[in-house]
Amino acid sequence: MLNFSFYNPTKILFGQNQIAKISKEISPEARILLTCGGGSIKHNGVYDQVLAALAGRTVLEFSGIEPNPTYETLMEAVRVVREQRIDFLLAVGGGSVIDGTKFIAAAAPFTGEPWDILAKRAPITQAIPLGTVLTLPATGSEMNSGSVVTRRATQDKLAFMHPLVYPRFSVLDPTVTLTLPPRQVGNGVVDAFTHIMEQYLTYPVNAPVQDRFAEGLLLTLIEEGPKALATPEDVAVRANVMWCATLALNGLIGAGVPGDWATHMIGHEITALHGLDHAQTLAIILPAMMNVKRDRKRAKLLQYAARVWEINSGSEDERIDAAIERTRAFFESLGVRTYLRDYGIGAEAVPALLAQLERHQMTALGEHQDIDLATSRRILEQALAA
Amino acid sequence: MLNFSFYNPTKILFGQNQIAKISKEISPEARILLTCGGGSIKHNGVYDQVLAALAGRTVLEFSGIEPNPTYETLMEAVRVVREQRIDFLLAVGGGSVIDGTKFIAAAAPFTGEPWDILAKRAPITQAIPLGTVLTLPATGSEMNSGSVVTRRATQDKLAFMHPLVYPRFSVLDPTVTLTLPPRQVGNGVVDAFTHIMEQYLTYPVNAPVQDRFAEGLLLTLIEEGPKALATPEDVAVRANVMWCATLALNGLIGAGVPGDWATHMIGHEITALHGLDHAQTLAIILPAMMNVKRDRKRAKLLQYAARVWEINSGSEDERIDAAIERTRAFFESLGVRTYLRDYGIGAEAVPALLAQLERHQMTALGEHQDIDLATSRRILEQALAA
């Protein structure tokens, strides 16, 4: 196992009727800004539950944080925070609302151009405290310190991480996910699954606990993910999916092991140029990545085949092929297509995607930093069609 | 899965040479009290590493915290903390030193009789911040908010938990465990294993992630524990054992599932009256507990047999019998005997143990609160000898 530092102070309030508890987690004197997205929380009862929990408190509202939250929108919220002397941010929504709120939290007290937090890794020394009420299990943002923000003007999609933007608390009530559309449910499972794979499918470092935790999450998503679509009213299934998605990216399974993240980096460029959902890009790139990197990932691919899919017969390459196909079939079973062509994207798109990777200095990706532009080209070409 | 709240803000610094980093985790102005046990840290280099890391800081020392730390000793440290205006406690040792230091942290600012924190669950509102350098993987105290303290005068062994006594940081450097005597290594593995079983071997609540995490830790201890004794110089093995022991009791695998803890409660009385090591009492009671409670624990016993020991043939009771025997053999392979008779304790000891349980109101133990004194008697009688 590699040396590591692990720190995660987010308090999780998990289960039905937990939204009512947020009043105890926020100072009574706080001036609260509730941040949210497009309005689904106003139709499914979550908004009403939050306002009921905060009755008598000072609560302002900032809605309209979009999927792949933009710097332009978030800076409007920063202006509200500054003008209204907000001292607590309550993100109510999915990963985009939470990611966006983390940026607001860091940008509001920042002196200078807040874009530099993303573009120049400008250090931050303070942040407005934030909490979250999660409505969409997928990104894990509810229990980590990371945030991804897009600049609309340039379609740059950049990330920052800082301990100051760990949510103070996150409410995970699986009943609020019952009304999600199937596309978001499927996307969420693919997103969580790929987060696990980015930390698991690298090379062995004698970290059996991390491996087994990762495999345990993968197996649970494989069991429960399709059930969330087939029996959408089953709260117990939603609870298991929700807890998997949080644990997939809260730092635990990645502590002491290498990380890959190349699938995410290439996927980000597809979203930026073609507007695909984040999870769609992961479902497209991951199987191609597994195939192209099969030699350097061989030991973990074989372990994945055996322990996650019970593939134990055939040559090594046959087992790896089978594991890749099972992964692809799993994504497809969730309603997430796995080839660029399925989204109307052809070979003519590849040069522009490679140019974006180059512009963002994504020319040495993966756990060995050996995924150069030529390798990314092979991955994208394999991802075009069956 | 059951509703739960999970919060664990302890920062883990894991790996070789991490002790040097503690200076960054403690305020430069802090008046530090280093707490420790019997002196082993002065022979294995840990003490020197800690003092080197804190060069130039104000560091006082309190040594002599014993295994099963006593209120009497800890109150001497409380006096030092108060007189010397200590504002940071650094526990360097195993679970007893860390548990004791948590009590010191809570007792020093407490107004009134600090024993009430344990005996009357008197609420605490402040605690001296503490950090730890762990030397013995076993109890998990380095990443939880619990503490067990014994009153020498009465042999009462009582516990308290409070979020204020989470360590701010804990250093887990597996190299410092290389010089542990085999008895402490074996005890540590049994202790961690039993912590997992107390949270796993109850009844199913549809919590597949918690089950798989628990099974992953058990499997890893089964693989790595004997190696720690057979190849004591292997740092990678020690690292895996150390991380297992911490994750066994940091709240994660117990979140959202029932807990048993009857084995611990009965074991505590054996330590109190007969002075056995904590882990020895667990190795004695757990197999008998599994046998006596086989009906209400049946579903999880069969899952444990199949997933942890790969026992898949035979009748249900045969599989359960086999799983209990494998558990017992595992403990014995670590050098920890599993019957009271092995420690010279006979049937004549049972009434006094039951009287202690009654005196401590331990008359409705286990996940169903159905382990009354008659059941505890059966467990103790089965634990006498093969």
Commentary on this structure:
- The structure is a homodimer of 386-residue chains.
- With 386 residues, chain A is of the alpha/beta class.
- Chain A folds into two domains: 166 residues, Rossmann fold (3-Layer(aba) Sandwich), CATH 3.40.50; 203 residues, Up-down Bundle (Dehydroquinate synthase-like, alpha domain), CATH 1.20.1090.
- Chain A contains 14 helices and nine strands.
- In chain A, helix 7 runs antiparallel to helix 8 and helix 10 crosses helix 14.
- The longest helix of chain A is centred in the middle third of the chain and has 23 residues.
- The model of chain A has no long low-confidence stretch (mean pLDDT 97).
- Strand 2 of chain A pairs antiparallel with strand 1 of chain B.
CATH topology of the largest domain in chain A: Dehydroquinate synthase-like, alpha domain
Q: What share of the residues of chain A lie within helices?
A: 40-55%
Radius of gyration of chain A: 20 Å
Shape annotation of chain A: globular
CATH architecture of the largest domain in chain A: Up-down Bundle
Instruction: State the distance separating the first and last CA atoms of chain A.
Output: 37 Å
Order of helical and strand elements of chain A: EEHEHEHEHHEEEEHHHHHHHHH
CATH class of the largest domain in chain A: Mainly Alpha
Quantity of strands of chain A, as a count: 9
In oligomeric terms, what are we looking at?
homodimer
Q: What is the mean predicted local confidence, pLDDT of chain A?
A: 97
Largest interface chains and counts: A-B, 40 and 40 residues
Provide the domain count of chain A.
2
Poorly predicted regions of chain A are: none
Strands side by side in the biggest sheet of chain A: 2-9-6-5-3-4
Strand content of chain A: 5-15%
What about the largest sheet of chain A?
6 strands, parallel
CATH superfamily of the largest domain in chain A: Dehydroquinate synthase-like - alpha domain
